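Predict the holo structure. Ligand: pimeloyl-AMP.
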Amino acid sequence: MSELYSLRMRAAQGGAHEAGGRHISGAEAILPEAELKSAALAMLERALGHSRGKADFLQLVVECVTPEELQTTPLLPVYAQANSDIEQGRRLALKALTRMGVAKEAALSGLNMLDGLSDSMRGAMLVCAKTGCRLDESGARGIRVSRIGSAEPAAFADWLHQHAMRGVHVREALLLASKVAAAPGMVAELCWSDDPEYTTGYVAAKTGYVRLPHLKVLGSPVGGRIFFVRPEADLRALRLYLEETAVLVNVPEATERSWLQHEVLP
Ligand code: WAQ
Ligand code: MG
């Protein structure tokens, strides 16, 4: 395999994030050198033309990833759950989270934490899957998962196409959720986008990634992620895995292509 690189982008408005700037956009990828330039350009364009607003701080970081530090994990099975409005979407998210092992009060607390944000964070909140208390001390920054990529980008693109999943949101979210679900001490994840035009969110765990088309109000620039973790989880190890460990996600085998299922939560 040729040399691989981790590519990360973050953009903010009103200065850098750490200087109080408002988060506009972020992205991460693991790529071979040959694709680095075009991917960096695409990230730059995305940050500069973002629907959340005009960025005036932009950072691109490129780091070599050695083969020894690479881990792999399977793409999560994907389920498409229809829902007609936000209220129903949140109710279904609650149901899915409890089935995945999050206590009902904790799931409710997580939903309220996302719903109560006044603006988006750059990263995710770690929340106890039993008590619903916030566990990380990253404040308004959150924990940003990075060093994620597809092990076979062409096969992954085919797989997405076959299952009629289009666009950068679902492509990147599937990779991120697959890495997150494999984290030590992770129980489940809840997410909706901070892009005003994107209302689809998801709930994910090792058992699957459940898409819900209406999890937030159309036009809202507030989104986020909650990672529900076991009470006894080693938070340092978890954070190290999420932020530092390079993980490539494997595409399902051809025989498993019937994975995509509908209506998992009657
Ligand atoms: N690590 C941790 N948190 C992140 C990361 C990351 N790498 N990227 C984004 N977040 C958090 C952050 O708080 C953002 O404000 C929030 O998530 C939303 O990020 O199947 O596009 O990149 O179609 O806007 C879901 C796809 C798309 C559903 C989610 O999130 C589907 C999306 P966004
Ligand atoms: Mg966004």
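Residues 26, 28, 120-124, 142, 144-145, 169-170, 173, 176, 191, 193-195, 198, 200-202, 211, 223-225 surround pimeloyl-AMP (ligand 1) (CB under 6 Å). The CA atoms of residues 71 and 172 lie 18 Å apart.
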